[in-house]
Amino acid sequence: MSEKKEVVIIGGGIFGVNLIAKFCNAFSSTTANMHITLIEARDDFVYSPLNVRNCIEDVSDVFIKPYDRLFLKKPKLGRVICGLAVGVDQERKIVSLQNGAEVKYDILVLATGTSFEDPNNLPRSNHSDVLGYFAEKRELIEKSYNILLIGGGATGAELAAEIADRYRSKKKVTLIHSRELPLTEVYSETLRQKVLTYLLQSRVTVHLKARGTDNKNGTVTMVKAGRGKEKPTTEVLKADLVFHAMARRPATDGFPESWKDDRGHVRVKDTLQLVDDDSIFAIGDLNDVKEVKTAGKLHYSLPVVYNNILSLVNDKKPSKVYTPPAESITLTMGKYRATGQVALPLIGPVIMPSWLLTSLQGKHINAERAVGSVGY
Ligand SMILES: Cc1cc2nc3c(=O)[nH]c(=O)nc-3n(C[C@H](O)[C@H](O)[C@H](O)COP(=O)(O)OP(=O)(O)OC[C@H]3O[C@@H](n4cnc5c(N)ncnc54)[C@H](O)[C@@H]3O)c2cc1C
Q1: Which residues form the FAD/NAD(P)-binding domain (predicted)?
Q2: What is the residue-averaged pLDDT of the chain?
Q3: Which of 2, 35, 182, 201 is surrounded by the most beta carbons within 10 Å?
């Protein structure tokens, strides 16, 4: 057997930890021709689909878990380094960390995900900072009456429904969205209508074909498209609290510009290797594959990257290719309702009933199952 290859994974989010779990299930330190190092900026794994709920009620202990059990059963197979990766030297094959440390790799996997706006802009920092971030959001929401969300994509719609569901008529929740219906055209009109109906039933005020600008003085200026040939109207809305739910950018700041497209996504081939460096893979939210970035894509991309890494480890050419699946989504519309579409071959998108989705998701949007990937 040739010398063990050092596989370094930057980012212990949903994609990073599931990749590691797959290696841990398949190999022991004696059968694996590799050693794995996870570099992660936070003390804990955070299952982000539960972020929104945690801004309303404290469920931190359900979905925020330390990495201490990740290699518990296979301690010689890998290790976790807590630190922020700030650079990659391709020639020396080294990842540098903010604290000055350097980590050598043979194969590198980038899995640093996305940076969101509040209330999903969690610090890449220690346990108490992350818990403090959510506590602050809960306090802000609790003390605000007029809550205004700019952006009616999946996270905006879910947050609006979650707040409205929890506080009922005690708060005025307003959602401003630029399109004719919530979400984007990627999803079926039936689903988008359904999301709108749920929002309205929860007494969320929804402004469609509108754009909001936060004046940072307790007001938002909304410009709304007119009907037909009517001129756009401008209105100033009161807002004790404003969330921007539309801006998301890949968390790729520390990586060379030559790797990225104009929006900051890391450019990959269909093998999920970098366009000009076969020893580096990019998986999850940060790569430039044309698809809606969701955790659900894991089931399709993980087998590809797993097999291709094994090929490289065994000095073979990676041959598995990734083809994005048709778009499916589940939206949690408050604690007791959900909607979503599943793309079925030949049939197309099928809307799933709320009772089925809520029972499949369990009490905490599948978090109990998700933290299993870090051994909890
Ligand atoms: C509110 C919300 C709800 C969602 N709901 C759903 C849903 O219902 N279903 C679904 O399928 N998807 C959902 N998603 C999307 C899903 O969470 C993402 O697609 C998924 O988390 C992407 O996984 P990832 O591993 O690429 O990135 P992430 O899970 O974001 O993980 C990236 C990790 O990298 C670390 N990191 C970043 N930069 C560095 C660095 N420089 N050095 C070291 N570590 C670093 C971060 O700390 C983080 O742990 C939701 C997202 C949000 C925000």
Answers
A1: 85-294
A2: 95
A3: 182
Contact 94, 88 (CB under 8 A): yes
Q: Residues with beta carbon inside 6 Å of ligand 1?
A: 10-16, 39-42, 48-49, 51-52, 84-85, 111-114, 116, 120, 124, 155, 251, 254, 284-285, 293-296, 330
* C-alpha to C-alpha distance for 117 and 150, rounded to whole angstroms: 11
Residue 1 has pLDDT above 70, yes or no: no
CA separation, residue 376 to residues 7, 66, 129, 298 (Å): 24, 9, 21, 19
CA atoms of 135 and 60, how far apart (whole Å): 10
Each residue of 186-221: pLDDT tens digit? 999 999 999 999 999 999 999 999 999 999 999 999
User: Which amino acid type is present at position 26?
Assistant: A
94-130 burial, b at 16+ Cβ within 10 Å, e below that, comes to ebbbeeeeebebbbbbbbbbbbbbbbbebebeeeeeb
Contacts of 271 (CB under 8 A, 6+ apart): 304, 308, 318, 319, 320, 321, 322
Q: Which atom of ligand 1 is nearest to the CA of 155?
A: 1
Give distance in angstroms: CA of 113 to centre of ligand 1.
5
> For residue 28, what pLDDT band results from cuts at 50, 70 and 90?
confident
Domains of the chain: 5-119+248-313 (3.50.50.60), 127-246+327-374 (3.50.50.60)
> How much of the chain, in percent, has pLDDT values that exceed 70?
99
CA separation for the pair 304, 15 (Å, rounded): 12
